[in-house]
Amino acid sequence: MATQAQVDRWEAVFPFIREMSEEDRALALRSVHFPTLDADAIAYELDGDCANYLMCLDGRTRVFRRSENGREVLIYKVTSGGTCVLTTQCLLSGSNFPAESVAEAKTELAAIPASVFSELMGRSAPFRTFVLQDYSKLLSGMFSIVDEVSFATLEQKLARRLLVEADDEGFVAKPTSSSPPTLTASARSSPVTSANGTRGLGRQPSRQGRDPRPQGAGLTQDGLRPRIGSIRGPRSEPGGQGREPVGRGLDQRGLH
Fold it and tell me: Which CATH architecture does the domain made up of 4-149+186-224 adopt?
């Protein structure tokens, strides 16, 4: 059973819960549970059942697709205050989860069972409004991935990635080891039954056959494309060893 501290935190992160009627709020409180995922634990696996509507209280999960040879394409990330658009889509349509989701850090969730989710969607206006507005916002953000994959040139994708990685001076830190650099995409749950009732939640993923190199631009935490700004060329400065300029004279006009 949920503790009062957990409920208070849930309502603080998702204030719309306080706007629900006493009867609807009581239904949500009786059914909600608060699973915790350790870093690298599986939230969902490909084609898994969506047993719960998941709301992120703290931490971060990434949602991705994996090719047959193990290479990953990031779709988006879910952070505190966010929900998973694919989970919502599965619950609304009755389909299975079409991707994979893994916790990147210790993640605390609020989970509402699918049956209670359906009931609240039909009877609670504040709950329904939040779910549909959040779903629409995240779905709109996903179209930026379509634009990125379909229309952006390789040079534009590389420039945007470097701009995201650059510091305030326009430099990207040079790797100190002999291994190739890893550029991580920033942004905002598939199956195996766990104690909290969701298939896949909490399971540690297998790393065999996985290519550690990230693919695709992904979404930033606000659901939008990486911010495009200008960067300056190289310059001499004390203590500048270990950094390399990422470009010279790149601006928004050169990226679109």
Answer: Sandwich (2.60)
Its pTM stands at 0.59
What mean pLDDT do residues 187-200 have?
39
Angle in degrees, CA 89, 66, 136, rounded to 5: 25
Enumerate the H helices of 94-180 as residue ranges. 114-123, 125-151, 154-165
> What CA–CA distance (Å, rounded) separates 7 from 32?
9
Q: Which of the residue ranges 78-82, 90-94, 199-203, 217-221 would you say has the lowest mean pLDDT? A: 217-221
For range 228-252, the mean pLDDT? 41
Residue 48 in contact with residue 199, Cβ under 8 Å? yes
What is the rounded distance in angstroms from the CA atom of residue 95 to the CA atom of residue 92?
Answer: 8
Structure token pair of residue 61? 């999960």
Question: With contact defined as beta carbons under 8 Å apart, do 103 and 41 qualify?
Answer: yes
CA 109 to chain CA centroid, nearest Å:
13
Q: Residue 188 is encoded by which pair of tokens? A: 């905002």
Using a 10 angstrom Cβ sphere, with 0-12 exposed, 13-18 middle and 19 or more buried, the burial of residue 67 is exposed
* 73 DSSP β-pair partners: 65, 215
Residue of 227, 105, 88, 218 whose CA lies nearest to 166: 227
pLDDT of residue 175: 62
Q: Which two tokens stand for residue 2?
A: 């949920």
**Mean pLDDT over residues 59-64, rounded?**
94
Buried b vs exposed e over 172-200: b needs ≥16 C-beta within 10 Å? beeeeeeeeeeeebbbbbbbeebebebbb
